[in-house]
Design goal:
By secondary structure, the chain is mainly α. The chain is 55% helix and 6% strand. The longest helix has 26 residues, at 145-170.
Length: 208
């Protein structure tokens, strides 16, 4: 396993700017093969430019680096804590005038914010709040949960696509005991399991 993998699996990642490949090999595996324009169903409206990617061939030698990348991505995408989320959102909303509300209504509103933004990492929520404050057209208006959710979705789009690609590649590799990887799992437990498996792979290589 490369030194870059060991470094990235040990440090804490905390923003979209930390989305880097743990090795040159992984960068090659995850890199796009081209781009294509996306239009509306009627073909008259340009919507976006999307990257093409086809799963390249991988071998057992790629497993450690891919698992290291999976660990980094799970950390990067770890959901924000409820208390931190509400504090960040309430700070943004405090910039706008609002009338006092009954406690039960405030609690219900808090539930809405958690339900709509709780799946996103802290850095994405912070970036969404920052983007709203600085937008020349929207900053004067109090945001709704859906407004920040859309910004969060944009922020995590690239890391999510990388995770999908890594999982796709890992799914083609069998573990040393013959089991296939389980890329459909995600979250802190998945990150911990992957990190433990990376450590076992490194120990095995050192003994050999």
């Amino acid at each position: 396993m490369s030194a870059e993998v060991a470094c990235l699996t040990e440090r804490s990642v905390g923003s979209a700017r930390d989305l880097v490949a743990v090795s040159l090999r992984v960068a090659q595996l995850l890199g796009g093969t081209g781009r294509h324009a996306v239009f509306s169903d009627d073909g008259n409206t340009f919507l976006d430019v999307r990257e093409d990617w086809r799963p390249p061939a991988v071998s057992a030698a790629d497993r450690a680096d891919l698992m290291g990348q999976a660990v980094a991505l799970e950390r990067l995408l770890a959901p924000i804590e409820r208390g931190v989320l509400l504090a960040r959102v309430m700070a943004l909303l405090a910039h706008y005038r609002q009338d006092a509300m009954p406690p039960e209504v405030e609690r219900a509103l808090a539930v809405d914010w958690v339900e709509d933004l709780g799946e996103f990492p802290r850095w994405a929520v912070e970036e969404a709040c920052r983007a709203w404050r600085r937008d020349p057209k929207r900053y004067r208006f109090r945001p709704l949960p859906g407004d920040l959710r859309q910004l969060c979705q944009q922020a995590v789009a690239r890391p999510l696509e990388w995770r999908r690609r890594v999982n796709r590649l890992l799914a083609t590799l069998a573990e040393p005991d013959g089991r296939l990887a389980r890329p459909e799992e995600s979250g802190p437990a998945r990150a911990l399991e992957l990190q433990q498996r990376v450590a076992r792979l490194v120990a095995t290589k050192r003994r050999s």
